[in-house]
Each structure stands twice: as structure tokens, then as C-alpha cells.
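Hi V.,

You were right to ask for the full record rather than a summary. Here it is.
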Amino acid sequence: MTYLNIFKYAQPNSLIFSTRLMLLSKTGYKYPKVSEIRPIAVTTLPQKIIEHVLLERLENELGKKISKAQFGFRPRMETLMHVLRLIDRLKSIRDSKPKRFKHCLVFIDFSTAFDSIDHLLLIEKMSKFPECSNETINLLKWYLNSIKLRLDNNLIYQNRGSPQGGVASPFLWLLYINDLLLDLEKIVGTSNTYAFADDLLICCVAVLQSLQRIIKMIKDWSSKFKTNMNVRKSAVLPLALRKNKKDNFNHNILNVPLVREYKYLGIIFDYSLKFDSSLNKARRAVRTMNNYSVLV
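Predicted structure:
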């Protein structure tokens, strides 16, 4: 008897598998805009049990297939390790003393990443892995069919998306975006590809054709797999050893803007790689803490 028999009489349409939806404000304001709301799914206990079983099988069968460039939601990998890996690469660029704007950082933002996972496309991706058993795929199908959101007394059925707050949702996104990372690694190499869940960064040479090729590849992938690449929040950051008042950033590459600085995982990267903005922000935070301790 397999573990799937445990749910032999469990119907996905049962209310015990309905997910309660909570709407949280990203800004803290009492009446936020729609774009400032983060929907969080509160799953039931039976759902959590299924998710834990599903996640364990997915990690055992496909964990080694995840790109080495991916650090988000991975065992023994954390934000600090990801940032240190990136800073080490940027240090090697500075030490090589390149000419102005020889390298660029391409930051890609995916909006509502978990909500954009297409169920049929995800199953199709997983079916291509010979390591993924039919038992695991059937359990995933059962789980995806059971997803329905409960908002007050209304039930919302959906054929795409994985609940934010779900146990298995982060790993399902890693599987969904994995082929894109592997394709990028073939072009720029693993040492120049960085991903932390849905936050993507590519370090490449500052050649227009190369930048266009990379951005077009990501746009095509996003269109094919029905994800939401946010062009406005994505950016291209040229790197230089020194600043120049004549530097012009009023341009874009395939609608992705060129910027002087960009905030990635809480760190502000500027185009001269001096991290002045991040250091000033840290100093202000320390002063605030010191002032607070005096008051206390």
C-alpha cells in the first residue's frame, strides 16, 4: 500500500482542503492600494500533511537537479552565502581594473511568482525528469486539484498558482524556473548567474547584443511559461571603477531601464561598486538604535 492510499477517500473538493486567504498590507497603511497587498494562504492541517509528504519526495527525487545558481529555499544555503558569492565575483571584476562599463548587472524581477505557476506546464516540466516517479506526479496533481481559496464564505477555484505560505510552494517555484537558470548558465556561466527564489541577477559583458540576447531570452521564457516579468522593476546596472558626471542613464534595453543603483536583497548596488548608499543607510540605522538606547 502506498501513501497515496491514505487519501483514497479524501476528495479535493472537500471543505477540509480549502485554503483561507489573508490579505496583508506590504506598506503598513490601513487602506493600501491593490498593488500594495500581499495575499497569504493559510492552509488546513490535511493540506499541510500532504504538502510535507510531497515536498519530501520532490527534494529526494529532484533536489540535485536544481541549478547551482539557485540559493533560495535550499538546504544549508542562506541569503548571506548568496550575497558573499556575488560580492566575491564583483571584487574580481574590480581587481581586474576594466575599462569603463565593461560589465553589467542585469536584475530581473518577477511579480507574483508563486501565483503565476501554471499547473499543466509544471507537471509537463516534472514529467521530463526520469528521476521523478509517477507516484510523485500523481500526488502533485492531486494537491494542485485540491487548491481552492476561501475568502469569507466564497470559494475560488484556480488552475494556476501555488499558495503563498504553502509548505511546498517555494520548491515548486524552484522547479518551475530551473530550466531558465540552466539556459542562462550555458550562456554566461554558473559564476555569473545568481538566483534567490524569484530574484534573478546576471553578470555579463557590457555589449548591447549580449544584453539584448539575455533579456530577450528571459522575456521569451516568461511569455512561454506565463509568468509576470516586471520590466519596470527590472534594471540594467553598468559597472565602472569611477563615476563621471557625463554618464547618461536615460536609456533602456528592450524596455528594461539603465540605472545608477539598484537594491538587491536589501543591499544597494551602485555602478561604481562603492556601496555608499548601503553604508549610509547602515550608519543611519546604527544612529537611530543608539538614540533609542539613550532614551531607554
